[in-house]
Amino acid sequence: MISTRRTRPCRRTATADRTVTERSTAVSLRDVRPEDLDEFFAHQQDDEANVMSAFAPRNPKDRGVFDYHWDHLLNDEKTQVKTIQDEQGRAAGALVCSREDGIPELSFWTAREYWGRGLTTAAVDEFLADFAERPVRAHVPTDNVGSQKVLKRRGFEVVGQEKVFSNARAEIVTEEILELTGE
């Protein structure tokens, strides 16, 4: 089922003295379609997005590794995977809820062209409205302010930190562990 949630409408316009951010007017989560995988693979080629997320495979250009990873995600009964669809029906990103040590773990990826438009926020809102299990955790690099804002504004709180190796950055990064409880 595809449902649509509305966000605040505004548009991005550049003038000599200011820029106004364009917000998406609608977003929906839907099941992943085979053609979405081509879009997700294209999103993975964005070096800036890889660095921002700090998550990337060793070789993001290797389609075989990508297909293997997505086949595993889509066929894991304990993992929920949704396409974040923009108002034109295009795959703008993906939202994944897997399990780590039995606890739901939320992650998302939105193509850079959609950053700052409210699509990710609306997608997370829609997912959390339908997914009642708590707690839900997320891991976010300390310098990924946008993703942290999305989660913290939804009630996620920092419960710890961990250091992990980032293939995209070729270094150890610190990730905040955020958790949404039912309280």
From TrEMBL:
InterPro entries assigned to the protein according to its UniProt record, in alphabetical order: Acyl_CoA_acyltransferase, GNAT_dom
State the protein's name. Protein export cytoplasm protein SecA ATPase RNA helicase (TC 3.A.5.1.1)
Taxonomic lineage per UniProt? Bacteria, Bacillati, Actinomycetota, Actinomycetes, Micrococcales
Please give the residue ranges the record annotates as the region Disordered.
1-22
| Keyword field | ATP-binding, Helicase, Hydrolase, Nucleotide-binding
Keyword ATP-binding: yes or no?
yes
| Matches recorded under Pfam families | Acetyltransf_3
Q: Which organism is it from?
A: Micrococcus lylae
- For the keyword Nucleotide-binding, the answer is yes
Bias kind Basic residues: ranges: 1-11
Q: Single GO molecular-function term?
A: acyltransferase activity, transferring groups other than amino-acyl groups
PROSITE patterns attached to this UniProt entry:
GNAT
Where in the numbering of this chain does the N-acetyltransferase domain appear?
Answer: 27-181
